[in-house]
Amino acid sequence: MMKKIKKALCLCGLGALTLGAVQLHASVNRVAAMVNHKVISTTDLKSRVRMAALSAGMPETPDLDAQLSGQILNLMIEEQLQQQMADKIHLKIEDERVDLAIQDIEQRNQMQKGQLLGMLQQAGIPARVMRDHLRAGIAWVEYIRAMYGDAIQTTALDVKRKLDEIKASRLETNVHLSEIVLPVDASFDKGKARATAQKLVTQLQSGAPFAALATQFSSVPSAAKGGDRGWVSLSRLDPAIRQTIEHLPLKQVSQPIETPEGIAIYVVRDRRAPGESIDKDTLISFQQVLFSTRKGASQEELYPIFMRAKSFTENTKSCAIMKKTLGNDARVRFQEVQKTSVSHLPDELYAFLSKLGKEKASQPVMTDLGFMVFMVCDIEQINPGDPTEDEVKDMLRSQELQNIAQRELRNLRSSAFVDIRL
Question: How, if at all, do strands 31-35 and 418-420 pair?
């Protein structure tokens, strides 16, 4: 059991997944694809494949590189098209926006600030690879808003219909879905997509974080939120999807399913029976402290650090003083997670935290990065009522922008000059 907890507690993200400090082989930087007038190099493609493999916890092999390259190149082509459209209207995404996106990923995976890029660097992957990936996604969202945001109009009748739909959905079974969708097209056929999806399923069943894989592999808008599609009524799902989802146990990974959007993998995060509100949730706030250790440290080196963490546990009596108790030691890192849904936490981590009780520091837990101490500050049950008219308008506008983005990307892909040279 402790083995499982340690795996989940290893900052719940890429920290549990290492490829080692494999260095890029010196090679000629060739052209992987031309997208209109822009080049995607083989070096950048290899870095993205390695980043995806790192996220999935897959060992890097020539066979894996060959299997992932087509899918990753397809995503890079779409990102290049998205970035080109943003450039066309002189839309510039500042570094600070990208920094915030990185921090969001770290917080969503209970990682320390700076840890994500540090792990990539340790694996020999330039930070630029992640930053370019995130910058393209942000630029595309801003481009769609700039071009189409003002044109979207919602009437009182639209709002009423949506509210009626929300009320009617409460009379059905609703599921909170996470998804990874691999597109199928001329450059990435159904067989390749299914083979890649099956490998992802294997990694997810072995404990790889769903959100990290969704961010790297999925081609639908939910990828920006770690694959979180939100609440959906079963009746609104495609029949092929519904048949699988109806009988899928909570938190279990589905087998790959052929859908209108491509080959998909699903996880049911939560389920509401007819009559239950989909808005009820459990929010948890907690703090965590990492006492860093050197990789490969001996028992003699680890012992004093463990004793310091143990002393910290014994002397920290509340969340209010947890950070103050630490002092200014640069080797000790503090992080606070506020009001996050328990559905966003790995099962093992939530099970661990729920047993602590409020304002009680945990015993030190050994992870790949050092000893960690946790303290739960608050657990809150929420069950809000119907959304307001303004909230419904925001929902409708967001959905319409997503639909426009998907149509626009399909049109761009069909009209672009794309020359794949692999």
Answer: antiparallel
DSSP 8-state code for residue 44: H
Q: Would the pLDDT of 7 be above 50?
A: no
**Can you give the residue ranges of every domain in the chain?**
2-150, 155-277, 281-382
- Matching residue, tokens 């090679």: 27
Helix 389-415 vs helix 62-88: crossing angle, to nearest 10: 110
Domain 2-150 - what CATH class? mainly alpha
Question: For 10-125, where are the alpha helices, taking DSSP H only?
Answer: 42-56, 62-88, 95-108, 115-122
- Report yes or no: 413 and 36 within 8 Å, Cβ to Cβ: no
**What is the pairing mode between strands 174-182 and 257-259?**
unpaired
DSSP E strand boundaries for 128-256? 174-182, 228-233
Q: Report the helix count and the strand count for the chain, using DSSP H and E.
A: 14, 11
State the Cα–Cα distance between residues 96 and 112, nearest whole angstrom: 18
Calpha distance 264→241 (Å, rounded) = 9
Cβ–Cβ under 8 Å, residues 7 and 348: yes
Contacts 24+ apart (CB under 8 A), 119-122: 119/14, 119/15, 119/18, 119/54, 120/51, 120/54, 122/18, 122/21
Residues 166-205: pLDDT tens digits?
A: 888 888 899 999 999 998 876 667 888 898 899 899 989 8
CB 270 within 8 A of CB 345: no
Q: Are 2-150 and 281-382 the same fold in CATH?
A: no
CATH architecture of 281-382: Roll (3.10)
**138 touches 93 (CB < 8 A):** yes
Rounded to two decimals, what is the model's pTM?
A: 0.69
Q: Which helix (H) or strand (E) holds 421?
A: none
Please determine, looking at this structure, whether the domain spanning 155-277 carries the CATH number 3.10.50.40.
yes
d(CA 336, CA 285): 8
Count the Cβ atoms, other than its own, within 10 Å of residue 199: 17
